[in-house]
Please model this.
Amino acid sequence: MKFNFSESVNRMKTSEIRELNKMASTPGLISLGGGMPSPETFPKKDLEEIMDYVMENFADLALQYGNTLGNDGAREVISGMLRKTEGIDTAMKNIIINSGSQQGLYELATVLANPGDTVITEEPTYVGAVSAFSANMLRMEGIEMDHQGMIVEKLEEKIKKLIGEGRNPRFIYVIPTFQNPTGYTMPEERRRVLIEISEKYNIPLVEDNPYGQLRYYGKPVNSIRSMRGGENTIYLGTFSKVMTPGLRLGYTVAPDEVMEKFNLIKQALDLATNSFSQYVALEYVRRGVIYSQIEENKKIYRVKRDRIVSALKENMDGMATWSEPEGGMFVWATLKGDIDTRMMRESAFKNGVAYVSGQAFTTNGTQRSSMRLNFTFGTPDQLEEGIKRIRKTVDSYIGKK
Amino acid sequence: MKFNFSESVNRMKTSEIRELNKMASTPGLISLGGGMPSPETFPKKDLEEIMDYVMENFADLALQYGNTLGNDGAREVISGMLRKTEGIDTAMKNIIINSGSQQGLYELATVLANPGDTVITEEPTYVGAVSAFSANMLRMEGIEMDHQGMIVEKLEEKIKKLIGEGRNPRFIYVIPTFQNPTGYTMPEERRRVLIEISEKYNIPLVEDNPYGQLRYYGKPVNSIRSMRGGENTIYLGTFSKVMTPGLRLGYTVAPDEVMEKFNLIKQALDLATNSFSQYVALEYVRRGVIYSQIEENKKIYRVKRDRIVSALKENMDGMATWSEPEGGMFVWATLKGDIDTRMMRESAFKNGVAYVSGQAFTTNGTQRSSMRLNFTFGTPDQLEEGIKRIRKTVDSYIGKK
Model:
């Protein structure tokens, strides 16, 4: 007996990221495509020790169902960490621990908006946000960016237009620091204007900050949530880049008024986050291992960032423009001429290199000549070789056209 | 600046289970309310050893992002386990590993139905299903049960009525073995009729089986998924009751046609399940520890089940009726006379005992004289004392009325 499953809505299209995962094990392939941290940044010895400690001392709790909003001890140390690394002042009661930051994005979409509502994002924006918002049937309006992130004048124009159409936006979602996919960082002055616009039109701000702790160059910029007027910003963070992604731990900081809604949706989604992971993270932060590991990661990634940027200079000069991010995990490169990077993917793959095409990150069908290049996963030599292979691909692709 | 968050839909109401969690740490309270396994069933020594092994041999993968549908090795051993304990024949490619079975329920609601659609459940049904289905704005129609589970004649009547109203049900959700909250088990003959009805009206069947491996008495009943004609049943299972709930691992078995949809929603929900937990479960099953642990759990819980049933006989005879489940975690008790168990909860709490009132499990506002009593978490003595306290509560509550 086969059922007819065809009537349920297809809320999402197959994503390029999925295809990438399938190719990941191809021998010889250099992937600049995924968003994976390097295993050399995993604090294995520390985690082994901490896991033993947790099993010795807290097994009954670490293996049991936990509270929906998260383990109180873990929420407490996250509060302390946010004060220390981000200057964010938040009580433990305003922290929700999620099964990765992706879950935080999904929760947002259900707590702050209803199906059919409009939300504002950067254009391009994080593919996982597109996926979480689409799954909740939200309409995304992307705001153009320059090297300083979302262009706030265009934001205000768009808000006025949307309000005029009766489509009041439910929230403004930004990744202001080392944005995914572009690597751009929004300077403090622009963040201030963003807060003003959010206040003026009474539209909640959402700050997603998975990379802020990984700055390799330049002066830190305050997080929006830590700024005056930014106290009601909803803030998303993660342990994926400063501990490990496999333990699936992210967190949301949210105002009192919405905590109950987060609690209810989290319960519907998976009852509670992995207790064991939370105990491990609790110890990892409490012992301060996280702070030395962040410094370690920065050393490793700074070298890689330099290598990919210099490889781009050597190989792509005049053929493309690219961001030179001061931190994070990604470089955004845009090819000159009329090249569709999605069409070019197959040639690139044949040449032994993978990237994610710009279209994966778009809210409006643009970005077709761009590509996102990850520089945290490969070795420095692989990164250089990967860029050479992209150059080779572009050369032959132009030749064929 | 405070935003106006009030416009987003309240998809769910505060649940009794949440309140229960808050009370859980009250000194002296005997909780028959939660659905927690006993920590004495956690295979701590084995898990410690397995965790060390995973960190020694697979740390780079166990700490990294994993595939959205799950670790292939883990999917493979789950396929083997299902063959062995449930007689279910399924390929690894039809298994999705979830962050707990709750996530499987949430996924179902998005993959098989659209907001506003109608689905069929047992009445009463699992509170987590009510929560996942409500969050997706599904309308639930509960079918009355007797001691043999869902009454299939009433099911067919209801389906005809719904189709007549243009509300074709999207799926039929059942917990046929040691049902939550009632403890009832549907005999094979009735399962067969269920399959027939599902075929006749082309409505997919969903079999949720978190307790099937925990049978203390009687002859095993085949799972619907393992029966002839049941091959396209969507099946939900979990490691929470036969390993630990804190590692948050559940799984869905689904037909080819819907795997891509499950993949996409899972990616939107949390990218992938905890890799470390999956490696641990893989080893736990591969080494066969799970099978001896299941036998261990059955020994421990059989004693508890007997104790709560005998305590009910001694203390509640003539005042209530109750189920005498052959397995699982719950007894369903219904008080005689016009007692609202939700109203009585506060008195019970003052007397040092907690339960979940019948209304928490209803799809239609009934079940007000019933209560769900968990017998896996407390010690046998606590279970007996808990029932005595309920008796005392009923006595004084009737006196006061």
